[in-house]
Amino acid sequence: MNYPNSIKKKNIKVINYANRGMSLEEDLNLTNTYYLESNIAIIYKKPTPIKIVKVCFDSKKNATIKEAYFKLPSTTDYNGLYKGKYIDFEAKEVKQKKSFPLSNINAHQIKHIRSIIDHNGIAFIIVRFTLLNKTFLLKGEDLISFVDTESSKSIPLSVFENKGYIINESYVPRIDYIKVVNDVYLGGKK
Prior knowledge:
Layout: H1 24-37, E1 42-45, E2 50-57, E3 63-70, E4 78-82, E5 85-94, E6 99-101, H2 107-118, E7 122-129, E8 134-139, H3 140-149, E9 154-156, H4 157-163, E10 165-166, H5 177-185
Parallel strand pairs: 5-7
Antiparallel strand pairs: 1-4, 2-3, 4-5, 6-9, 7-8, 8-10
Helix pairs in contact: 2-3
């Protein structure tokens, strides 16, 4: 386009590919809202317990947290009920193509998953390999078995491919992990 006084304006289109897709947490939150509204399951994201140390009051009704600390180590990300069964799981995204670093899961989270299994609950991890655009559900039992028997500091992608379950993405629900839970833990019972 030509402007007066010989000023030329170029239309430069900058394409930003960052955050093209939704994060795993956003996808799970949308999925859980769908499950709740459709009366399929009741699954919630657990809040991280914090201790508020310093608060600034701008007015009587407006307060801003200025300083806070994590109160306790959190357990896992999500928990709830599906068909009378307690469900508890951790969700992680990784950029690696060949493995999932175990450093992404804390020792107290492994202990918590172990406890859920010991009490006949359903525990698992959902891992999204973002560069591969693949999301897997790995049973808590398989995670615990790997941690107990392997010396590796990461779980190879092959473990997810052989023992895990791919979770296909769709519009609604975004990540239908309950379909996998139903098939794997409840034998496909409707």
